[in-house]
Amino acid sequence: MRLRGLYDAHVTPRLIAFACGREGIGDHRRLVVPLAEGHVFEIGCGGGFNQALYDPAKVVSLSGIDPNEKLLEQARASARAFGWDADMRYGRGEDIPFPDSRFDTVVCTYTLCSVEHPERVLRELRRILKPGGRLLFLEHGRAPDAEILRWQKRVEPFWKPLAGGCHLTWAAGASLRANGFEVEPLGQDYLGGVPRIFGWMEWGVARRRGA
Ligand SMILES: C[S@@+](CC[C@H](N)C(=O)[O-])C[C@H]1O[C@@H](n2cnc3c(N)ncnc32)[C@H](O)[C@@H]1O
C-alpha cells in the first residue's frame, strides 16, 4: 500500500509529464485547444501542457481540477507564468467543485482515459457547461482494428496501475454520445511514433444534447 502511494506520488507525475509533453502529442493539441473561448474549464489540468495553446484574445478565465497534487502545482505555476486569470483546484471529475452552467468551454485532453467512472464524469461536465457551450476533446483509446484491440485488452490490466489508471479501451466519442452529448468529430488517427495500442486518437467538439 505504502509502495503504491509512493509510486503514485513520485513516479506517476514524472511519467505523465514525460508522455504528455511529447512533440507529436503537442501537434494534436494544436487542433483542439485553440478553439477554447470564454470561461474555460480544464478537467485533469495537471502539468499545464495546454496552457501555451489557449488564445489570450478568446479566453477570459481558466479553471480546472486535478487529483494529483504535483501535477496540479505545475499547472498553477504555468498559469502564473502565462498570466492567466486561473482557479485550479484539487478535485476529481466525478464531483466537480464548480457551480452549474459556469463555463463556455470544457477542455478534456488525455484525461477521460484516466477516470474510473466516465459516465459520472460526463454528467458533471454537462452540468458545469453553459447551454450552448462546447466540450473540446482529444483522447487516446479503443482502436478500431480487431487485432490492436485484442492487444489493448491484454495489456490494459498491467498498464493501468503503472500509468495513473489510464485505460486503453475507453472510446471517447462513443462515451460522449452515450452520455448526453452530440459529437462533431474533427479527426481520428493513429499517433505516429508510438505503438498502436497506445496511439489511437480521437478529437472533436461535443455539445450538450438538447441545449
Ligand atoms: C495523462 S494526464 C493528462 C494531463 C492533461 N490533461 C494533458 O492533456 O496533458 C491525465 C490527468 O488526469 C488526471 N486525473 C486522473 N483521474 C482523474 C479524475 N478522476 N478526475 C480528473 N482528473 C483526473 C491525472 O491526475 C492527470 O493529470
List the defining traits of the structure above.
Rossmann fold, binds S-adenosylmethionine, alpha/beta, 37% helix, globular, 211 residues
Structure description:
The chain has helices at 2-20, 23-29, 69-82, 118-128, 146-162, 172-178, 196-199; strands spanning 38-43, 59-66, 86-90, 103-109, 129-140, 181-190, 200-208. Strands 3-2-1-4-5-7-6 form a 7-stranded mixed beta sheet. The protein has 7 helices and 7 strands, in the order H-H-E-E-H-E-E-H-E-H-H-E-H-E. Helix 4 (118-128) links the parallel strand 4 (103-109) and strand 5 (129-140). The protein has a single domain (2-208), classed as Vaccinia Virus protein VP39 (Rossmann fold), CATH 3.40.50. The chain starts with a helix and ends with a strand. It is an alpha/beta fold. The structure holds S-adenosylmethionine. Residues 16, 20, 43-44, 46-47, 49-50, 65-68, 71, 92-94, 109-111, 114-115, 164-165 line the site of S-adenosylmethionine (SAM). S-adenosylmethionine is lined by residues 16, 20, 43-44, 46-47, 49-50, 65-68, 71, 92-94, 109-111, 114-115, 164-165.
The CATH C-level name is: Alpha Beta
The total tally of domains equals 1
* CATH topology (level 3) name: Rossmann fold
Q: Mean pLDDT, as a whole number?
A: 94
Strand order of the largest sheet: 3-2-1-4-5-7-6
Q: What is the fourth-level CATH superfamily? A: Vaccinia Virus protein VP39
User: From N to C, what is the helix and strand string?
Assistant: HHEEHEEHEHHEHE
Q: Could you give a short account of the major beta sheet?
A: 7 strands, mixed
Overall number of strands: 7
The helicity comes to 25-40%
The total of helices stands at 7
